[in-house]
Amino acid sequence: TRGGRVAESVDAAPGHIRAFDVQTGKRQWIFHTIPHPGETGYDTWPDTAAYKKLGGANNWAGMALDEASGMLYVPTGSIGGDFYGARREGMNLFANSLIALDAATGQYRWHFQTVHHDLWDRDLAANPNLVTLHKDGQRIDAVAQITKHGFIFLFDRATGKPVFPIEERPVPQAALPGEKPWPTQPFPTLPEPFARQTFTAADVTDISPEAHREMSERFKTVRFSEMFTPPSKDGAWIFPGFDGGGEWGGAAVDPESAILYVNSTELPWSLTMIDVPPADGQGSTPAKGRHVYNRHCLSCHGPELQGNGSAFPSLRDIGKRYNADQLRRIIDNGRNMMPSFQHIPASEKSRLLAFLLQLDDKAQTAASQKEPVSETITDPYVMTGYNRFLDKNGYPGIKPPWGTLNAVDLNTGRLLWKVPLGEFEALRKQGIPPTGTQVYGGPVVTKGGLIFVASTQDEKIRAFDKHSGKVLWEAQLPAAGYATPAVYMVNGKQFVVIACGGGKIGSPSGDQYVAFAL
Questions:
Q1: Non-local CB neighbours of 77 within 8 Å, separated by 6+ positions
Q2: Are 373 and 400 in the same domain?
Q3: Do 56 and 111 lie in a common domain?
Q4: Prediction pTM value
Q5: Which one in 117, 136, 169, 362 has a CA-CA gap of 20 to 30 Å to 48?
Q6: Is residue 385 part of a domain?
């Protein structure tokens, strides 16, 4: 089973991998993704008690099982505390890694870490793909792992040896006080990246003179930097963005040709750090609530509670929309992009409600007044939010394409073609060629030569010719299909079905499955 979803803050639970007997429910084995004493990788942590203090390194994207060999391939996320790592010096194994395990026993076979000491939320967000390819006259059973930063890491399934060379290259080192970035990061020489790797002033949008002026001024407010520039108070561009590049929808591989098809979002995000705001006041319950807010809520809803787009709404005057009981249910259960915070102590929830609703001490329960604030570790810095580089009309502030579908030949490592994925009708009416849109949800490829993919903001599903990337068919959906289609057969007739959930990045929500006959 997967490690599941855990928090991304410094107090995250560990994301160990477990196997269970489906008949008895008993746990068969556990692999500690933050190694315990005596386990492989334990000596890579300078802090010998790291396994007691830290969490994350979970598998939330899915795994791949090679039934013939009995090998399980597990991609992992980052260590908790995404953007400041002074408490986790070192490479941070087995975070941000593709791990090969014996599926029957959980025994370690090999691993490769795609980002060392991650400070950029570059967790492995998609399941791996198993493929058999041919290189230099040899047949290779391989495993391919796409990443948020637009790379494909490709390995021999049995040994973990890279199919093409992977270079460790020096990266910027100027960082926040106490931070020790890893001096190098791995770059595959092949396969070729499926997403752009740089973002400069010359790349700012040109869809209109007005948009170019607006976004050029905003571009100047964030320090220009290259990939893997450590987070700072000056800010840095994350490109491809926090959601990719490649994302949780993953890639599809044609087993006959070993061509990998993957969609990509090409949208810069900005990352700016600030000092954690102090909890003003002399120990009042609302002031203690500010302390809880800083720890759990600030990175999404902002230091001034202003929110950040449709995904992270403003919490100002939230008492006009919800009462205390309604807010507590949201905290316990989560909503939309927000996970459940049921795990935090009841006293902290009460203090957080006091802060959000601007209540005084007398309005709180006796328990919340008496119990101390928990001693959960906190960092001195926090990011100001997940800031997409969008203009006032919601269009990305970079030159198109903004979303692409890509074909990469894994035999040679070469990018075969790249086409825009999705379009905006308002821009089409202005005579602007298809720009692509932000995309969520992967493709499927069929033996008959088609690639089916939805995932676009224009709420369509499309079929592409897998050889050329030409659009052969499209259909309007009742809501955006931010999911990967499934292809199936009933009584000799083939169908493709897509879940039309919408809901992300301001798209209207939906609740229908739509199936098409092939």
A1: 15, 56, 57, 58, 59, 60, 61, 95, 96, 123, 124, 125
A2: no
A3: yes
A4: 0.91
A5: 169
A6: no
